[in-house]
Amino acid sequence: MERMSKQRILFVCLGNICRSPSAEAVFTGLVKQAGLLNQIEIDSAGTSGFHAGEPADRRMQSHAIKRGYNLTSLSRPVDRVNDFDDFDMIIGMDDSNMDNLNQMAPTLEATQKLYKMTDFCTRFDYDHVPDPYYGGSEGFELVLDLLEDACEGLLEEVKNRLK
User: Would you write out the chain's pLDDT as a tens digit for each of its 163 residues?
Assistant: First the structure.
């Protein structure tokens, strides 16, 4: 049976310093456990370039490390030209991210690559991953709870695509 080429997944939030780098780290951990690192490429970006080149928010990093996730990526803005070509799935964290991504999409076909993170949740009933930036530690913990849930569901979807 011929195997499909790599699946490329891009996680997107506003600044690419809290939610999307956390999603990238959580999903990378699950993909590594599943032995699929050579079949799935993972990245993250922001709809704004405000934090370009910066590491993830220190508070987010601190909460992630407690769960065994290391947020190593540096923030970058979504590349309107290449990201819609290069990635199979582009996953936004909330409605605002989704609206921005829909506006950035170069073609109607490209919008079919867009998904909302919480669509993959199986345990939590949230319609978005809330931005923890202006809140307290419970917000960062909720983000990780939601991302762990959604990334498990996403991995099942990606495994089906690889078949």
Answer: 444 579 999 999 999 999 999 999 999 999 999 999 999 999 999 999 999 999 999 999 999 999 999 999 999 999 998 999 999 999 999 999 999 999 999 999 999 999 999 999 999 999 999 999 999 999 999 999 999 999 999 999 999 999 8
- CA pair distance 41, 50, nearest whole angstrom: 25
Task: Quote the pTM value.
Answer: 0.96
The DSSP line for 67-94 is: TT----PBP-B--TTTHHHH-SEEEESS
- 131 belongs to the catalytic site: yes
- Of the residues 43, 57, 94, 131, which is catalytic? 131
Within a domain: residue 127? Answer: yes
**Active site (annotated) includes residue 161:** no
Catalytic residue among 8, 18, 19, 43: 19
CATH number of the domain at 28, please: 3.40.50.2300
Would you say 110 and 88 are in contact if contact means Cβ atoms under 8 Å apart?
A: no
Mark whether 13 is an active-site residue: yes
Active-site residue identified among 13, 18, 121, 151: 13
